[in-house]
Amino acid sequence: MPIELPLQELDLAEFIKPGDTVTWGQASSEPLCLTEKLVSQRKHIGTFNAMVGLSLSNTLLPEYRDNINIISYGALGTNTPLADAGALQVVPCNYSAIPQLISSGRLRIDVVLVQLSPRGPDGHYSLGLSNDHLLPAMQAARVVIGEVNDQIPCTTLDRPFDEALLDYIVPCSRHAVYAPENIIGDIEKRIAGHLQDVIEDGAILQYGIGSVPSAIISSLSGHRRLGIHSGMLTDDIIDLIESGAVTNETNRVRPGTTVGALVVGSERLSRYLHLNPSVELHPASKTHGAQTLAQLDRLVAINSAIEVDLYGQVNAEMAGSRYLGAVGGQVDFMHAASTHEKGLSIIAMPSVTNNTKHSRIVAQLNSRLVTTSKSDVDILVTENGSADLRGKTMQQRAAEICSIASPVFQDEIMRAAKATS
Question: Quick one: pLDDT at residue 419?
């Protein structure tokens, strides 16, 4: 049985030593009572490492690098200011690789701070709003401290949580940190409109982060027999499920069940997931693992990008010299979807930057950094149309891709392509 500790008297220096690596749940599963205590005691602890994922809070600030070396698989969410300030060290890796990197010790984890719901009807704690790579981290760690938060939903996991992984528990009551609402405008709706007839009934959907994937998912309420098997779950799934579009009947891995690893949504989604057996949170080794994805023969992967070149190569990480994104799960899902006969890998994005001054379709990637290979992209779509790249030559690809760029930039793109060929 874990030992219960009072939050007010908690001295984390008793458990965290200089040089240790501490990790915690990402996005809405960050245990705020513990992480805020951690940064307030950082000077008392000494210099340590923090391995973090997608962040929605402002717990970590650039000035905290005086005692904390901050490491992540990407600069997502509120990690972006850390990256801009040079306070974030990025480990580029596929999301599916993170559990094994932790288990093998290549990403060493010494202490885990984990958010838990109170015990559910089955007598077990729940991991609440994230499963992803927390279990291998807890198995590898020297110390695991659980924050039992009475405002966290008791979600359904792939298997009951093993209380033996906990060394200490700290009761608290605190709202989770929720994701900002995705703003879906005219451009996002036009992009989604180009995919209405491309995505078929019975498809199993994975989608990435951002307003474009959100717009696409939200537009599918008229479809039927859809499934959801995604690394991330957002509010968009609620209306899609309640519309009757999602039944998960074609999901051979978990028939009838919506599957995700991480919740990135609002309090509405948190309430929806509480004691809901039709939605399960699985570890990233299952949601993103090649063995699982190989069984999803109707997988449609919907992701976005910062820029795409005329070969179809995708940069989802850097805008100029700024690191803004991550490899994340895009490569895992895009490759799997592109290799199935009934699968489909989609990159969807606006054709221009937010200020409309630059094209996001380019002759060559400005960052020279390729996140997803050209061979793993079936369809590229912008507000101007869609380009089906399957079976196309390099020259045909370039013409198709340029045709859905902004008309303002098309001549410029082709001139640049000829100059570099």
Answer: 72
- pTM metric for this prediction: 0.95
Cβ-Cβ contacts under 8 Å for 266 (sequence gap 6 or more):
178, 179, 181, 235
Burial of 308 (0-12, 13-18, 19+ CB in 10 A): buried
Calpha distance 145→125 (Å, rounded): 13
Residue 420 is predicted with a pLDDT of: 67
Tell me what pLDDT residue 54 has.
96
Inside any domain, residue 98: yes
3-state secondary structure of 318: strand
Pairing of strands 68-72, 88-90: parallel
Same domain (yes/no): 228, 305: yes
Domain match, 215 and 156 both: no
Same domain membership, residue 136 and residue 263: no
CATH number reported for the structural domain that contains residue 375 in this entry: 3.40.1080.20
- State the alpha helices, DSSP H only, in 222-315: 236-242, 267-273, 284-287, 290-293
* Sheet containing 344-348, strands listed edge to edge, beginning at the edge strand earlier in sequence: 227-228, 204-207, 299-303, 344-348, 379-382, 385-388
Beta bridge partners of 130: 262
Domain boundary among 172, 195, 211: 172
Task: For residues 411 and 217, give the distance between their C-alpha atoms in angstroms, rounded to a whole number.
Answer: 33
Rounded to the nearest 10 degrees, how much is the dihedral formed by the CA atoms of 405, 215, 96, 307? 20
Domain range enclosing 77: 19-172
Domain count, the chain: 2
Over the stretch 16-50, which tens digit does the pLDDT of each residue have? 999 999 999 999 999 999 999 999 999 999 999 99
The verdict on 281 and 371 lying in the same domain is yes
Distance CA 218, CA 348 (A): 14
Q: How many CB atoms lie within 10 A of CB 321?
A: 8
Question: Under 8 Å CB-to-CB from 95, ≥6 apart: which residues?
Answer: 73, 231, 284, 288, 327, 328, 329, 332
Q: Report, as ranges of residue numbers, the positions in the chain whose pLDDT lies below 70.
A: 420-421
Q: Give, in order, the Cα–Cα distances in Å from 167 to each of 58, 141, 157, 227, 295.
A: 27, 10, 21, 38, 37
Under DSSP, is residue 265 helix (H, G, I), strand (E, B) or coil? coil
User: Residue 14 falls within a domain, yes or no?
Assistant: no
